[in-house]
């Protein structure tokens, strides 16, 4: 296909167009995003919750130097791990990036909550003071994650049922919202959402490899990560608070367990691959249910996939 496809700029009075290119981890969406950017003069905007942090490159599968040089990229490695980013903050950063982008913005990532935040916005939420936020964090630390989860379940059983004990960030958010308002966060979340950013329309495409291909890619990619120094990368963040979002990036908990001498290295690698495969399955399920009208792209038929995307963007 020829380069320089003119897409993204609105005709007079029309909304601007952005592409959301989603898919499970290791599906090939980053490479496809670069191909689309090269053919449209577009810019890639990160929609992955782990890749926004600067501390890890290999273990978050963040684009490496050659990829970053192949097309303009935004919101990759822009925050330290000690500065947690939630969906609302990411949306603010992403909207700013959209407005600053010439040509087609291409949002590439697999974080469903981020994608939903951009497309649908948020329900109204109460203001939470810094004091209440600090109190929530201190409370969890004082009573431990299991008791903290039970405490959230006591006033918001719906939220507790969908949030595992280890989902520190969202459980703290549930606690602080209830503390600030006296109303469970699950009730707040049922209120109408604010909608997409004004003046934008989103075309969605999901990269869908077969399960066999996806598992092969996940296993091969993690082996490549290990060969490039993923273990040393994990060691570099071992001193950080384990409750930080980045510390739950695929492969990090397993390699840190090895560094603490809790398991051997072969077991850590196999567990990391298994966790990645399970995560990919959850992502695929989410995209199927939450983005039912998205274009489905077979990575083995990239030319046909590009044609489908360009036809929808036009």
UniProtKB/TrEMBL annotation:
Domain of life: Bacteria
Annotated residues for binding of ATP: 23-30
Binding residue positions for substrate: 25-30
Site annotation Interaction with substrate tRNA: residues: 111, 133
Region (Interaction with substrate tRNA): 169-173
Pfam family, one: IPPT
Keyword Ribosomal protein among UniProt keywords: no
SUPFAM superfamilies in alphabetical order: P-loop containing nucleoside triphosphate hydrolases
Listed HAMAP family: IPP_trans
Assembly description: Monomer.
Function field: Catalyzes the transfer of a dimethylallyl group onto the adenine at position 37 in tRNAs that read codons beginning with uridine, leading to the formation of N6-(dimethylallyl)adenosine (i(6)A).
Family, similarity comment: Belongs to the IPP transferase family.
Protein name: tRNA dimethylallyltransferase
Organism: Lacibacterium aquatile
Classification lineage: Bacteria, Pseudomonadati, Pseudomonadota, Alphaproteobacteria, Rhodospirillales
Gene that this polypeptide is encoded by: miaA
């Amino acid at each position: 296909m020829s380069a320089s496809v003119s897409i993204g700029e609105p005709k007079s009075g029309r909304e601007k167009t952005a592409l959301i290119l989603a898919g499970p981890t290791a599906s090939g969406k980053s490479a496809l995003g670069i191909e689309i950017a090269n053919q449209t003069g577009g810019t890639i905007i990160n929609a992955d919750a782990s890749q926004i942090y600067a501390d890890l490159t290999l273990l978050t599968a963040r684009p490496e130097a050659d990829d970053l040089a192949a097309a303009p990229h935004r919101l990759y490695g822009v925050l330290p791990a000690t500065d947690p980013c939630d969906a609302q903050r990411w949306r603010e950063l992403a909207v700013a990036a959209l407005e600053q982008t010439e040509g087609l913005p291409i949002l590439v990532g697999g974080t469903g909550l981020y994608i939903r935040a951009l497309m649908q916005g948020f329900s109204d939420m109460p203001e939470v003071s810094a004091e209440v936020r600090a109190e929530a964090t201190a409370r969890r630390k004082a009573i431990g994650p299991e008791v903290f989860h039970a405490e959230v379940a006591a006033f918001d059983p719906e939220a507790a049922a969908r949030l595992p004990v280890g989902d520190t960030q969202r459980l703290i958010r549930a606690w602080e919202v209830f503390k600030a308002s006296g109303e469970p966060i699950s009730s707040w979340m049922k209120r109408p959402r604010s909608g997409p950013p004004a003046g934008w329309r989103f075309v969605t495409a999901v990269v869908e490899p077969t399960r066999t291909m996806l598992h092969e890619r996940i296993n091969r990619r993690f082996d490549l990560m290990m060969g490039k120094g993923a273990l040393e990368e994990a060691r570099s963040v071992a001193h950080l608070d384990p409750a930080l979002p980045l510390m739950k990036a695929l492969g990090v908990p397993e390699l840190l367990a090895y560094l603490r001498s809790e398991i051997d290295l072969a077991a850590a690698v196999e567990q990391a691959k298994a966790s990645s495969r399970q995560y990919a399955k959850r992502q695929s399920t989410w995209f199927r249910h939450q983005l039912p009208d998205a274009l489905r792209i077979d990575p083995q038929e990239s030319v046909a996939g590009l044609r489908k995307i360009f036809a929808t963007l036009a």
